[in-house]
Write a structure and sequence with these properties.
Layout: H1 6-16, E1 22-24, H2 33-39, E2 48-50, H3 58-67, E3 73-75, H4 84-91, E4 100-102, H5 112-121, E5 127-129, H6 140-148, E6 158-160
Parallel strand pairs: 1-2, 2-3, 3-4, 4-5, 5-6
Helix pairs in contact: 3-4, 5-6
Length: 161
Amino acid sequence: CRRVTGQGLTVIAQHTRTTLQSLDVGGVFNITVQHLLELLPQFKALNQLHASGLGWSDGHLEQLSELNSTLEALSVSYSQQLSQTALRQSFLPMASTLKSISLAFCESVVDNALLGMLGRNLPHVTCLDLRGNPSLTTLTGWYDGRVSADLPAGHALAVLG
């Protein structure tokens, strides 16, 4: 529901703090990234965060990686103020658990070089949403990154792009 507010999310946190595993607030216009980050420590069982369209920045992503390094799925699509450096530094603490990443329409950051870095450093990722990134022209970087890190080449990968 796009009309959920920060106060509503606070109530959800109070009642599901030990049981909620997946939270989707993508496109909700009444919640800020900062409010979401303040509430995340309350969600003890959270392993999937879908928060696209909230306006993530490098600082927000860094805070997220410090708060929760056990995420299996992360969606931060439609974020125009992210850098490749911040993505690399923020994703590395999650490397042992992260299986799904959505960076759709992050045109200023997603390109062939980023894909190589992701392939090299995120051994468990099996799903990538890279739609709407015109600077990304090939998936070769992903596989080159995996080979350079001696990761299995036969690793199944689902890509939306």
